[in-house]
Amino acid sequence: MEHMEKRIRKAAGHLSVLLGSILAVYVGIWRMLIRPLAGLYLTYRAGELTIFYVVVTIVKCWLSLTVGGFIWSVGYMIKCMLDA
Fold it and tell me: In the prediction, which pLDDT does 2 show?
């Protein structure tokens, strides 16, 4: 019975790393890097670009990898807690 609990904890740990990786890519790369740059391009093409929009986009792009790394790290920390 103890062996089964260990296997379930290990599987849950791997699932948390997988989920953390997927969320890190989605939030860090898609939501905070690609979408803001695409929006910046579209507002420029529409002629409605403002300095505020440019600054917000720069901040989002600057923080994107940090946020993605943080999300991945949380998933990895959960795995480590489950493996202990």
Answer: 83
Percent of the residues in the chain that have a pLDDT greater than 90, as a whole number: 88
Integer angstrom CA distances of residue 48 from 20, 32, 41, 42, 79:
36, 21, 10, 9, 46
Signed CA dihedral, 31, 33, 39, 42: sign only: negative
Q: How many CB atoms lie within 10 A of CB 47?
A: 6
Q: Is the pTM of this model over 0.85?
A: no
pLDDT at 13: 93
Q: Please state, in angstroms and rounded to a whole number, the distance separating the CA atoms of residues 26 and 49.
A: 26
Whole-Å CA distances, 84 to 5, 17, 33, 79, 81 = 12, 15, 35, 9, 5
Phi-psi region of 49 (alpha: psi -120 to 50; beta: other; left: phi over 0): beta
